[in-house]
Structure formats: structure tokens, C-alpha cells
Protein: SUF system NifU family Fe-S cluster assembly protein
Amino acid sequence: DDLRELYQEVILDHGKNPRNFRHPDDANREAKGENPMCGDRFMVYLKLKDGVIEDVAFQGRGCAISTASASMMTEVVQGKTAEQAKALFETFHDLCTKDDHEHCDHGPVDEEAMEKLMVMSGVRQFPVRVKCATLAWHALNAAIDGEDKVSSEDRD
Ligand code: FES
Ligand code: FES
Structure:
């Protein structure tokens, strides 16, 4: 149907032309996300200042879904507070882990969790591969929880 096709186009576009696919040189946080099933991985970079995500970007190698999801994630959390971004992540992470407490080692995922995931990532029209779609979100969460990088140069 039309909506499905529209979503598909959006995803394909994000997968092919990912937004914020770069390494900001003023990023003060970073974290790696890796899908052990395929070896795909992203680095997520944040400029986190006074609890606000002033910049977010990513680089790395992933499939179309993980790349599109990462791209959309950067657009969703840009300008949000770290708390807001974490709340987004944790809401659906909780749903995801309901039946499987092994860290992100999903078995089948229930409908509700899937719906939430799709809203979050925009990956609505795929028979979702959850690990792909959540890869960048996990890295984002890790970056928020991490420590500031020891800056090479203080440019302020
Ligand atoms: Fe599902 Fe992490 S366990 S998103
Ligand atoms: Fe590797 Fe999707 S197949 S992240």
C-alpha cells in the first residue's frame, strides 16, 4: 500500500544517504555499537554540553536497516536533552527485553515492542531485524552514559 511504500522510500533514502554520517571534531563523547551476528558496527559521536545533545553523528559500516535507523536516530535526538534521549531509548529497550534479559540478544519480540521500535526508528515496513534497527540506539545510550573524552585541544 501507499503508506508502506512511502516508508520504504524514506528508509531507502536514509540508508543510501545517511544524515550526520561524519565525525565531528568537537564531539566529547563516543561509543561503539556492534551487531555480533554480522560484525557490522557504528561509532556514535556526541557533543554533549550541559546535558543537551548539541550534535550527534555516526560513522561505520552497517546494512541498510541499521544505517537508516542510525541516520534517523541522529535526527530524532539532535537538540534533545540527554535525559529525553535516554528515555526514548529505555522505553523501548524495556519492552524489548521483556522476554529476553540477555543483553540485546533477542529471541522473538512481541508486537507491542515491535511497534514501539518501529515508531522509534522509522523502520516500520521491514520485517524488522531488531539488532540492526537498535544498533545505533544502543551506541547512543552508551555514549550518553560514558565519560567525556580527554580533549586533545580545548578550543573554547
Ligand atoms: Fe532490545 Fe536492547 S534488548 S533494544
Ligand atoms: Fe548487520 Fe544489519 S545485518 S547490522
Residues 98-103, 123-127 have pLDDT under 50 and may be disordered. Residues 2-145 form a domain with the Sufe protein. Chain: A fold (CATH 3.90.1010.10). Helices lie at 2-16, 64-77, 82-96, 111-121, 130-145. Residues 114 and 126 are 11 Å apart (CA to CA).
